[in-house]
Design a protein that fits this description.
The complex is a heterotrimer of chains A (about 675), B (about 200) and C (about 110). With about 675 residues, chain A is mostly helical. Chain A has one domain (about 5-655): Cytochrome c oxidase-like, subunit I domain (Cytochrome C Oxidase, Chain A, Up-down Bundle). Chain A has 18 helices and four strands. Chain A has helices at about 40-45, 50-80, 90-120, 130-150, 180-205, 220-250, 265-300, 305-320, 335-360, 370-395, 395-400, 405-435, 440-470, 490-520, 560-565, 585-590, 605-620, 625-645; strands at about 5, 565-570, 575-580, 595-600. By secondary structure, chain C is mainly α. Chain C folds into two domains: about 1-75; about 80-110. Chain C is flat. Classes of the chains: A mainly alpha (about 675), B mainly alpha (about 200), C mainly alpha (about 110). Chains in contact: A-B, A-C, B-C. The interface between A and B is large, with 68 and 56 residues.
Chain lengths: ~675, ~200, ~110
């Protein structure tokens, strides 16, 4: 039986404190530590990576719906000629906020949700390295996202496009506070990403279960690790750019004003030095998820695991040297264009390696087309289409033709929706039983999948055609007499795209219906190992206990869980796997050998308070200096509170102060 | 801050936590943060480099710099790195008294540097070089301002640390805490080493 | 977990083993101060130095930079992993920003 132990003065266990350290007697005067394990406080002040992961997911889904509604309004406007759904101004705001929301408030945090929830489980740890920083990251993301969206009610959203090129971002061309909200909001979510990145890297480096070498790391964790390194080094670049934007708009500096002698490309460079790694930040977690799912449903190990790892790392590294391919049309000069063109073609190689590895993983496998598998195959197909149109952009002369047309829009939606979002949905179907103890309905899931896949192809496929016909992106209205004739009539294809967007929306709606249906009263509890899975996160209950593992698992193999269930009785390089244990037996074995004393850090008020000070300061920058000072004071107080807080709550914070309130009985 | 810790194993870091590499979580995190800061200051320095020549006739770097003064304040910051390293080495010897003394001296030297920067900014401003005067001035004030804020934050942290050591309220490993503060401080100094040469000594 | 682990207070020993003595740090600080002085002298004798001026100054700067990094920040004595974390950032910063300035024709001027 594992006991989550109430902290005591006894020093017989490894405790957080070292002898040279005094533990402050009381946390903070009249307030006791929020040690509740149920109720709203247990969520608000939690530092449990699983609860935070779920909250990341819920909030990301909320923003997905917001961004989706924005997208539908855009498509409604373009469905017919002379659209009147949105004014030109509102249209500008809508596409800017759609992109910003989807990139920064849906895909990134949804990947963060999975990373938070599953990285510690996959490496056999009981939490992340810095649980309070983890909580801070979530709240900063939430408050940053809400802050960004309050611009709708305070004079209108940002309207310069998601890469906010100068001079469109200057006060003259964007007089509302939208761009200020955008810049400051991204700063706040940037802080969240940066702290999250440091946290997860340290976690993966330092908290791996005994025996888990780097080359036994589950592939999803590997991809998350690469992504966190990208975030770690890309966020500061956009931070610089955003600060300069703020100084330009709020304090009249002229960093991006050509009329004052500034270089118009400064912003573009800084943005894309961040922005291109950002593309891989969006898509690599999804690659990791797909690489987890394909082996499970092919009943084969991932083909060429080291290659997948190294190609992921290579993508991460080369991703730093291709940013200027976003700027081919800006007059960089032939040498720069040629160099970046070649680098861009080169990055297609490691990406192609992944596609090949996935295909060969399925080759000859016993395929089971469950919903997660369908989504994973969807990623391979759709991402390949997006990748191929991407290669056409790497050829600079062709790119010059395509720049700022719908062809680009088609490309990055195939990559981001087809690559990243489909992969995230695959992850949701795959890991849902692990996170919530219930299976999502498979039949409904299939319908959900097909609506989504047909919807996305109907929406984004025609954009290739209208793009090559010359329809510019961000064009808010089109007219009949310039729509062209016959097959290439852009009016027809715009209508198809708009219809497709509704099919897609219906598909997404079915996902929510599925959640409802699957969690109705009377639905069965998910089996312990519904998919016959392979990796470490399945060697625990569904959902996992607060301390994840009763015993820290000893790792001997990549695919440790699989090797505990199956034994290889083949010889001479011929594999013949026989089941030697059920999942229940494997988990029971762990429970019977549970670690005696498990110390988990206590919840804390400070992460949410510190995060809350950020939007206050940001409002202060826009509206009132006193607000700025007030926010800074709150931040400072939280900082000191945090710094002086012991990791575990003192005895008298518990109610009743002695007893068994925190004892958690192990299952079985 | 490394809160997750349970397993007794040969890999145990200095705070007594389980750790796959035997390294401290906090120190790893600090080095990553500093690696990340390289790209922050890199961006600011590059922007300055790009814009250093864009100013009116008589208000460029070569006209306003006061090299002897800046050299003196650079020297002060350099010496604060020495006192910081002495604080760390006192902390390693469990010598609280000297740790506090050297930390305080470091904070004092840092404050002297910031005071010098304030004086320098005021002088430039009196000469007509405001924040928005030219691209040169904007990028210069932004770069050195960011650095100044880093130093100021460092000073506040150092003084807080002195207070926490006095009241015995340091959470976690005291030696390591001093060492982490030291890493931050040295990094800020290292950035100034770059700024001093690239911005001040190389003529535009 | 019921095993009792002894506190690993090897921290101090680490530094005694690998770090410098206080005197060593003082020597390095003096060395750094001297280089700074040489740098300042450089800036006043630019005309005499001619082509050696810019590379000379940059080399002196790099020497100072790495002296602080390797000795004051202990990178020389510490785990290679710390160095890796920092140098990835440093290399990316120098690489990306140098290319960025090059595309804007900074180095031609």
């Amino acid at each position: 039986m594992a006991i989550i132990e109430r902290p005591s003065d006894a020093v017989e266990v490894v405790d957080e404190t070292t002898p040279s350290v005094a533990t402050p007697e009381s946390s903070y005067g009249v307030f006791r530590r929020p040690v509740e394990t149920t109720g709203w406080k247990s969520w608000l002040f939690t530092i449990d990576h699983k609860k935070l992961g779920i909250m990341y997911g819920v909030v990301a889904m909320f923003f997905f719906v917001v961004g989706g509604i924005e997208a539908m309004l855009l498509r409604l406007q373009l469905a017919g000629p002379n659209g009147t759904v949105l004014s030109a101004d509102k249209y500008n705001q809508m596409f800017t906020m759609h992109a910003t929301t989807m990139v920064f408030l849906f895909v990134m945090p949804m990947a963060a949700a999975f990373a938070n929830y599953f990285v510690p489980l996959q490496i056999g740890a009981r939490d992340v390295a810095f649980p309070r920083i983890n909580a801070f990251g979530f709240w900063a993301f939430l408050f940053g996202g809400l802050f960004l969206n309050t611009s709708w009610f305070l004079g209108g959203g940002a309207d310069g496009g998601w890469f906010m090129y100068a001079p469109n971002s200057s006060v003259a061309f964007s007089p509302s506070n939208g761009v200020d909200f955008w810049g400051l909001g991204l700063q706040i979510t940037g802080v969240a990403s940066l702290t999250g990145a440091i946290n997860l890297i340290v976690t993966v480096i330092n908290l791996r279960a005994p025996g888990m070498s780097l080359m036994k790391l589950p592939i999803f964790t590997w991809m998350v690790l690469v992504v966190q390194f990208l975030l770690l080094f890309a966020i500061p670049v956009i931070t610089v750019a955003l600060f300069m934007l703020m100084f330009q708009r709020s304090f009249d500096a002229t960093f991006f004003s050509v009329e004052a002698g500034a270089d118009p490309l400064l912003w573009q460079h800084l943005f894309w030095i961040f922005g291109h790694p950002e593309v891989y930040i969006l898509v690599l977690p999804s690659f990791g998820i797909v690489s987890e799912i394909l082996p499970v449903f092919s009943k084969k190990p991932l083909f060429g695991y080291p290659l997948v790892v190294f190609s992921g790392a290579a993508i991460g590294f080369v991703g730093w040297g291709v940013w200027a391919h976003h700027m081919f049309a800006s007059g960089l000069g032939p040498i720069s264009v040629a160099a970046f063109s070649v680098a861009t073609m080169a990055i297609a190689i490691p990406t192609g390696v992944k596609i090949v590895n996935w295909t060969l993983t399925m080759w000859g496998g016993k395929l089971r087309f469950t919903v997660p598998m369908l989504y994973s195959v969807g990623v391979i197909v759709q991402f390949t289409i997006g990748g191929l149109s991407g290669v056409t952009h790497s050829v600079a002369p062709s790119d010059t033709q395509q720049t700022d047309t719908y062809y680009i829009v088609a490309h990055f939606h195939y990559v981001i929706f087809g690559g990243a979002v489909l992969g995230l949905f695959a992850g949701m179907y795959y890991w849902w039983p692990k996170m919530f103890g219930k299976m999502l309905n498979e039949r409904l899931g299939r319908v959900n999948f097909w609506f989504t896949i047909i919807g996305m192809n109907l929406t984004f496929g025609p954009m290739h055609i209208v793009g090559l016909q010359g329809q510019p992106r961000r064009m808010y209205v089109w007219t009949e007499n310039r729509a062209g004739d016959g097959f290439f009539n852009i009016g027809f294809w715009n209508l198809i795209a708009s219809i497709g967007s509704f099919v897609l929306a219906l598909g997404i709606l079915l996902f929510f219906v599925n959640i409802y249906v699957s969690h109705r009263k009377g639905t069965e509890k998910a089996p312990l190992d519904p998919w016959d899975a392979r990796s470490l996160e399945w060697i625990t209950t569904n959902p996992p206990k607060e301390h994840n593992f009763d015993r820290l698992p000893q790792v001997g193999h990549l695919d440790e869980f699989f090797h505990r269930k199956y034994e290889d009785r083949g010889s001479d390089g011929h594999h013949e796997f026989h089941q030697i244990a059920t999942a229940e037996e494997v988990v029971a074995e762990e429970e019977n050998n549970a670690d005696g004393h498990i110390h988990l850090p206590s919840p804390s008020y400070w992460p949410i308070l510190l995060a809350f000070s950020l939007p206050i300061m940001a409002y202060g920058v826009i509206y009132n200096v006193f607000l700025l000072i007030g926010g800074a004071v709150l931040g400072l107080v939280s900082f000191y509170g945090w710094g002086l807080e012991p990791h575990t709550a003192p005895e008298d914070d518990y109610d009743p102060p002695t007893g068994t309130a925190m004892e958690v009985a192990a299952h079985g | 801050m490394a809160d997750t810790a349970v397993h007794a194993d040969e890999h145990v870091d200095h705070g007594g936590h389980y750790s796959s590499t035997g390294l401290s979580n906090n120190k790893l995190a600090m080095w990553m943060f500093l690696g990340s800061e390289c790209l922050l200051f890199g961006g600011l320095i590059s922007t300055y480099m790009l814009y250093r020549g864009r100013h009116s006739e008589n208000l460029g770097p070569d006209q306003v710099w006061d090299i002897p003064f800046t050299s003196a304040s650079s020297f002060v910051l350099l010496m604060s790195s020495l006192t910081m390293v002495l604080a760390v080495s006192s902390a390693v010897r469990d010598d609280d008294r000297n740790t506090k003394v050297w930390l305080s001296v470091t904070a004092l030297l840092g404050a002297l540097f910031v005071a010098g920067q304030v004086y320098e900014f005021t002088t430039f401003y009196r000469e007509g070089l405001g924040f928005t005067t030219s691209l040169f001035s904007s990028s210069f004030y932004t770069l050195t301002g960011f650095h100044g804020v880093h130093v100021s934050v460092g000073i506040i942290m150092l003084m807080s640390l002195v207070g926490m050591i006095s009241k015995n309220k340091v959470v976690g490993d005291k030696k390591e805490t001093v060492e982490l503060f030291g890493l931050y401080w040295h990094f800020v100094d290292v950035v100034w080493i770059l700024i001093f040469t690239l911005v001040y000594l190389i003529p535009a | 977990m019921s095993t009792v682990t002894e506190q690993h207070n090897t921290h101090g020993d680490d530094h005694a083993d690998h770090g410098l003595t206080d005197l060593g740090y003082i020597k390095i600080a003096i060395f750094l101060a001297v280089i700074t002085a040489v740098e300042v002298v450089f800036s006043y004798t630019q005309d005499q130095l001619g082509a050696a001026f810019l590379p000379g100054l940059l080399i002196l700067m790099a020497v100072k930079f790495f002296m602080v990094l390797l000795y004051f920040m202990h990178l020389k004595f510490d785990s290679k992993l710390f160095s890796l974390m920092f140098y990835i950032g440093l290399v990316l910063a120098v690489g990306c920003y140098a290319v960025f300035l090059a595309t804007l024709h900074f180095f031609q001027s």
